[in-house]
Design goal:
Shape: globular
Number of strands: 9
Radius of gyration: 16 Å
Bound molecules: glycinamide ribonucleotide
Strand order of the largest sheet: 3-2-1-4-5-6-7
Distance between the termini: 19 Å
C-alpha cells in the first residue's frame, strides 16, 4: 500500500475528491496518510480532520527561504515514509531538494490544458481569467509530474471542456473542477499507486 501526502493551501475541493474516491475504494493500493497545508486557515485542514486524516501546517513565512521550507517538507515526508506527494491547490514554491528525493513521485493538478495558461502567475482563478481573455474555445485540466521547472513536467492525464459564451472566470473554474479536476486527480493517484505510470522522457505511458 502506497502512502500519500496531499499538499494544500486553500479550500481543498481536490483533496475532498481524493477523500471521496478513497472512501469509494477507487484509490487502488494507496492511502492518504497526511495532509500538509501551507496556510493555517485553509479550509482543507477541516476536510482532513472530518475524514480523520492527520494534518500539519508548514508555512513559508516560518522559514528564511523556499529552500529551507522545502528541506523541512522533505524531512516530514521521509519521517512519515511517504511514497507519493500530491499537490492539490498547493500555492507555495518548492525547490529541487523535493525532486531529488521524490523523482517522478510528485504530481500536481493544474486548471488548464498545459502548455496553455501555466507558469508564473497562472494559478487559481487567474488561469481562467487568462483563458477567457485569450478567447479559447476549450479549456480543461492537466495532471502532471512536478519537476524543478514550473508546470513543465511530464503530463499524466488531461481533460477538456467547452468554454461557453457567457462564462465568467468563476463559472469556467467550477465546470473545470467538476468535470475535469475532481475526476482526473483521483484517477492519476490510483494509477500511480498501482505502478501503472511509466515515464519515458516527456511521455507518460499508462500501463494496462
Ligand atoms: C484548483 O483549481 C487547482 O487546479 C488550482 O487551484 C485550485 C485549488 O482548489 N491549482 C493551481 O492553480 C496550481 N497552479 P482546491 O483547493 O479547492 O482544490
Amino acid at each position: 500500500m502506497k502512502k500519500i501526502a496531499v499538499l494544500v493551501s486553500g479550500g481543498g475541493t481536490n483533496l475532498q475528491a481524493l477523500i471521496d474516491a478513497q472512501a469509494r475504494g477507487e484509490i487502488v493500493n494507496g492511502e492518504i496518510a497526511v495532509v500538509i497545508s501551507s496556510a493555517p486557515e485553509a479550509y482543507a485542514l477541516e476536510r482532513a480532520q472530518h475524514a480523520n486524516i492527520p494534518s500539519c501546517v508548514l508555512a513559508r513565512k516560518d522559514y528564511s527561504s523556499s529552500q529551507s521550507m522545502t528541506i523541512a517538507l522533505v524531512n516530514k515526508l521521509r519521517e512519515l515514509d511517504i511514497d507519493l506527494v500530491v499537490m492539490a491547490g498547493f500555492m507555495t514554491i518548492v525547490t529541487k531538494e523535493l525532486f531529488e528525493v521524490y523523482n517522478n513521485a510528485v504530481i500536481n493538478i493544474h486548471p488548464a490544458l498545459i502548455p496553455s495558461f501555466c507558469g508564473k502567475g497562472a494559478y487559481g482563478l487567474h488561469v481562467h481569467e487568462q483563458a477567457l481573455a485569450y478567447g479559447v474555445k476549450v479549456s480543461g485540466a492537466t495532471v502532471h509530474f512536478v519537476t524543478e521547472e514550473c508546470d513543465s513536467g511530464p503530463i499524466i492525464l488531461q481533460k477538456a471542456v467547452d468554454v461557453l459564451l457567457d462564462d465568467t472566470p468563476e463559472t469556467l473554474q467550477r465546470r473545470i473542477m467538476e468535470r475535469c479536476e475532481w475526476k482526473l486527480l483521483p484517477q492519476a493517484v490510483s494509477l500511480f499507486c498501482q505502478d501503472r505510470l511509466k515515464v519515458e522522457g516527456r511521455t507518460v505511458q499508462i500501463l494496462p
